[in-house]
């Protein structure tokens, strides 16, 4: 049995927990860095990346989050969470965690369109995934080991690099749990690989 955490400093935490539970796994809100030891995978939710970064520093989470990544445990960044994972952010000299080989641009779907919904074709997941975008970033550049899983209007909005999954939108805000289920599979695979045979 696996356990998946949701970083609970700010943002859409409860919805992610419900989506994970709908996928049949145990889900916990992570409020203290020590709790990271208890989970096999972690979701970094949407919200506001600069606020979340401030709280990561305030509660001394940064080293523990980087260690979590180094241990090979899967991490799923949604919207602001994707910005936290990215190695490069357009207009910023430093990344946050800087673990996923992508360059992201914040609020990149135009100010006049604050939020919108779109049906996406997602590789290996769905032909019609309902995606909710809220002041969303997109991936402007992806490294050679990054697999592009979905695009909207020619822009990369979902990608995977090994243990890291990142999307521009909010997969937790609808009743469609297929993308959460995809991440749950990543967590199960990573855990099985670690187990001695
Ligand atoms: N819904 C979201 O997570 C928005 C992300 C936000 N615009 C940021 O840059 O952090």
From TrEMBL:
PROSITE patterns the UniProt entry points to: GATASE_COBBQ, GATASE_TYPE_1, PDXT_SNO_1, PDXT_SNO_2
Binding site for L-glutamine: 47-49, 106, 134-135
Enzyme active site: 79, 170, 172
Domain of life: Bacteria
Pathway of action: Cofactor biosynthesis; pyridoxal 5'-phosphate biosynthesis
UniProt-listed Enzyme Commission number(s): 4.3.3.6, 3.5.1.2
Molecular-function annotations in GO: glutaminase activity; pyridoxal 5'-phosphate synthase (glutamine hydrolysing) activity
Keyword terms, alphabetized: Glutamine amidotransferase, Hydrolase, Lyase, Pyridoxal phosphate
Family to which the UniProt record says this protein belongs: Belongs to the glutaminase PdxT/SNO family.
HAMAP family recorded: PdxT
Subunit structure: In the presence of PdxS, forms a dodecamer of heterodimers. Only shows activity in the heterodimer.
Protein name, as recorded: Pyridoxal 5'-phosphate synthase subunit PdxT
Species the sequence originates in: Neobacillus citreus
Designated gene of the protein: pdxT
């Amino acid at each position: 049995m696996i356990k998946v955490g949701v970083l609970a400093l700010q943002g859409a935490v409860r919805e992610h927990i419900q989506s994970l539970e709908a996928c049949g796994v145990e889900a916990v809100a992570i409020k203290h860095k020590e709790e990271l030891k208890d989970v096999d995978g972690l979701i970094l939710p949407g919200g506001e990346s600069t606020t979340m970064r401030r709280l990561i520093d305030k509660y001394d989470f940064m080293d523990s989050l980087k260690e979590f990544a180094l241990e090979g445990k899967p991490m799923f960044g949604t919207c602001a969470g994707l910005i936290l994972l990215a190695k490069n952010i357009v207009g910023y000299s430093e990344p946050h965690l800087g673990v996923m080989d992508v360059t992201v641009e914040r609020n990149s779907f135009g100010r006049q369109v604050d939020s919108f919904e779109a049906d996406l074709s997602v590789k290996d997941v769905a032909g019609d995934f309902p995606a909710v975008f809220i002041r969303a970033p997109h991936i402007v550049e992806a490294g050679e080991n990054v697999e592009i899983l979905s695009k909207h209007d020619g822009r990369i909005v979902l990608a995977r690099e090994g243990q890291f999954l990142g999307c521009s939108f909010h997969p937790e805000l609808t009743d469609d749990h297929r993308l959460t289920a995809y991440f749950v599979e990543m967590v199960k695979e990573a855990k099985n690989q670690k187990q001695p045979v």
